[in-house]
Amino acid sequence: MAKEAVTKIKEAEEAAAEVIRQAAEKARLIAENSLQAAQAEKDSIIRSAVMAKEEKIAQAKKEAEESCAPIIADGSAEVTKILNPGADKFENAVKAVMERIVK
Distance (Å, rounded) from C-alpha 94 to C-alpha 101? Predict the structure, then answer.
């Protein structure tokens, strides 16, 4: 009878050890799956943030270009006027220089 009790205790201990091993394995798998899910969620959030950032940058560039267009156009017109003076202005400048030289 004592031998049977020892055998039953030993079997119970082995069964308990197996239950503990299975529980530890299950816990490891759950933790691993949780880490993978968290990484996937983090990657998704980062992708969304990058897309939102790129959209905001594109919108800001568009707005800046729209607000600068009139200034650039005015500047280009002024540059054209400076680089291509009218013939009468050139003649007036020549006359003015000639008058100063003659005096």
Answer: 10
Amino acid at 9: I
Q: What pLDDT is stored for residue 103 in this prediction? A: 66
Residue 52 CA to residue 8 CA, distance in Å, equals 65
The full set of domain ranges for the chain reads 2-102
What would the mean pLDDT of 24-51 be, rounded to a whole number? Answer: 97
**HEC profile for 51-69?**
HHHHHHHHHHHHHHHHHHH
Per-residue pLDDT at 53 exceeds 70 = yes
Tokens 């729209």 sit at which residue? 66
> What would you report as the CA-atom Rg of the chain, rounded to the nearest whole angstrom?
43
Dihedral, 21, 23, 28, 32 alpha carbons, nearest 10: 150
Tens of pLDDT, residue by residue over 54-80, are: 999 999 999 999 999 999 999 888 888
Q: Residue 87 is encoded by which pair of tokens?
A: 């013939």
d(CA 84, CA 13): 102
